[in-house]
Design brief:
This protein is α+β, with helices and mostly antiparallel strands and about 160 residues long. It has helices at about 55-70, 90-105, 110-115, 115-125, 130-135, 145-155, 160, and strands spanning about 10-20, 30-40, 50-55. It has one domain (about 10-160): PX Domain, CATH 3.30.1520.10. The chain is built from seven helices and three strands.
Amino acid sequence: SRDTPRAPQEVTTVRVQDPRVQNEGSWNSYVDYKIFLHTNSKAFTAKTSCVRRRYREFVWLRRQLQKNAGLVPVPELPGKSTFFVGSTDEFIEKRRQGLQQFLEKVVQNVVLLSDSRLHLFLQSQLSVPDIEACVQGQGTQTVTEAILHYAMSNCGWVQEEEGRP
């Protein structure tokens, strides 16, 4: 081991938490999850962020990453089991764990990290069509602006902090 001072280790923590059923009791109900990200990595525009995403958006993200990553294998998502045995809560929890493992692997991968769709997915609340428009330069903001705008609006962030003394 050499005694050269090392750059501080880059750490990215990503958590998928707090599944919530939206439109409960209606035919178009779905579950979304809170994605909390905390990092000191230069790859990310905002050092902390908090967004809500649903499974369908993860499916879209994985497809996009796969398209752009060439030969780099993209981690698997938890299955879309319609015949799940057990309680709904159990299913949601299993899926939450799977989604978290998926994102943990994705953010460790340099190639996948270079995809701006991933950054907008994790650090802005733009919808999928808006992410596409933004990445293709057809949105009203650049990718960085969209992320910073969301970070400044503190959407998921301030509420978290207010409860503490």
